[in-house]
What we know:
The protein is built from no helices and 10 strands. The protein is mainly β.
Amino acid sequence: xxxxxxxxxxxLAPGQCRTVExxxxxxxxINIDGQFHALDDRCPHRGAPLGAGYLDGTRLFCPLxxxxxxxxxxxxxxxxELPVARHPVTVENGRVLVELAL
Length: 102
């Protein structure tokens, strides 16, 4: 496992999400009340980028068909058997780091 620098912590405001890429692997980077979370950026339904979704509290909605996920864990509320992978995140010296097995 390796840690990758994906963004400046101050570049993503609380309540926002976006897509970041690490060596060809896309992640949805999410800021919930100052706590960062990272999920695989592909909805299991039709592959839409979750980083382009709508965040409501801890709920992340897919931008294509509205599937709902827990942004902290990757659990899918719409289809519990189809979660998305969650990746460890830390913030060091104002930078967001995500741990990935690449």
